Amino acid sequence: MENEGRSVIVDLTSRELTVLCCAVELYISSGGPVASREIATASGLNLSSASIRNVVAKLESNGYLSRPHPSAGTVPTDRSFRTFVDTIRPKRLPANVRRRLLEQMSAMRRELIEDLEWVAKVTADATNEAGMAMRPMGAEPFVEAVSLVSLGGRRVLGVIVTSDGTIEKRVLLRDDQPTHEELQEEGRFLTEKLGGRTIEAIRRQLPVSDGEPPESIEARSREAAHQLFAGREESVELQLAGTDHLLQSADFVEADRVRSLFSALQDRRRIATEWRRAFDRGPTQVIIGRESEVTASGNLGMVATLFYKEGRRAGALGVVGPRRMDYTRIVPVVEFIGDTLTQMLEEPGARHA
After folding, report:
1. What is the DSSP letter of 139?
2. Class of domain 4-87 as given by CATH
3. Where in the chain do CATH 3.30.390 domains reside?
């Protein structure tokens, strides 16, 4: 999906940025449209409501604010939230909050290879949003080679070798009884056509018939590819905790929004794909509204960060909540938990996640 929040960049003056950030903070606090007089009072700019209205009008014209009704106040758009998140420095966690989190994590800690649920619960409790923990979270490997081996008769063993050294096997059932030479030719053809692409990308764009004869290398290889890759599910562990926090929020009182929320949270593979894509930009990411398919479907926001073992991505944790969640408070909490998990995994004798 187009990352709407990053698609258009408009330079803002210092005054415009102050008004925008003030509008976002007031909206996060109230959840309702923000009036110009509220911004005039809270912004500290010492400007009249009329002057503030002029700035607000310009922000509206540039797509940062919108009005649910002509006579109502304004609400921030995804672009406004993105600018706010990228501009405002997250709050530093007070020492007592850090101590409390360390105590809680030490008390709840299990061996990460056995239990990831406590990580999601700690995150949910610390942020008062829904907490998530996921693994694996390394960059998705790509296909290096495909080979096909006869098992006798119509049965064929398909072998996929990926860039992380994994070898996956699947038994295929053919309509014919292919020869050794035919299977070698198909394996070379599939390697040439699919090599360098991730399994998820291949699964989304499996080759379709182009009217070629059924005995052709293209037709035979297409059938093998469908049996090898179609219906594959990535093995992703996603633990979710604290969904009751969301249900208590005024943002999720409507049944349709609740259904959209849980539909988004149930698609583990899509969340993993979105997180991996986001983490290409850095180890901590904020995803807002229509910036991804996951958050767009429920008008959500997500904050996620990586944790590491021996310098490699071991997994990720984060929160999901309404788009107007308090990012300046939540980002440092999520990062602190991620950093602490990394330290735990680096301790002598720690087991891999």
Report:
1. P
2. mainly alpha
3. 143-229
The yes or no reply on domain 143-229 and CATH 3.30.390 is: yes
Tokens for 42, please give them.
């809270």
CATH 3.30.450.40 domain locations along the chain: 95-139+235-346
Q: What DSSP assignment string belongs to 149-185?
A: EE-STTEEEEEEEETTS-EEEEEEE-SS---HHHHHH
CA–CA dist 133, 239 (Å, integer): 5
Q: What share of the chain is helix, strand, coil (3-state, %, to 5)?
A: 50, 20, 35
- In the chain, residues under CATH classification 1.10.10.10 are 4-87
How many Å is the Cα radius of gyration of the chain? Answer: 25
**Per-residue pLDDT for the chain (353 aa), expressed as one digit of tens each?**
334 444 445 689 999 999 999 999 999 999 999 999 999 999 999 999 899 999 999 999 999 999 988 878 999 999 999 999 999 888 889 999 999 999 989 888 766 656 789 999 999 999 999 999 998 776 667 899 999 999 999 999 999 988 766 788 899 999 889 999 999 999 999 999 999 988 878 887 887 766 778 778 888 888 899 898 886 655 678 899 998 888 887 777 777 777 777 777 778 778 888 898 899 899 999 999 999 988 887 789 999 999 988 788 888 999 998 999 999 999 999 999 999 999 988 876 554 44
Q: Is the domain covering 95-139+235-346 a CATH 3.50.30.40 domain?
A: no
Contacts by residues 160-169 (CB-CB < 8 Å, ≥ 24 positions apart)? 160/199, 160/228, 162/199, 164/138, 166/141
The torsion region of residue 152 among left (phi > 0), alpha (psi -120 to 50) and beta comes to left
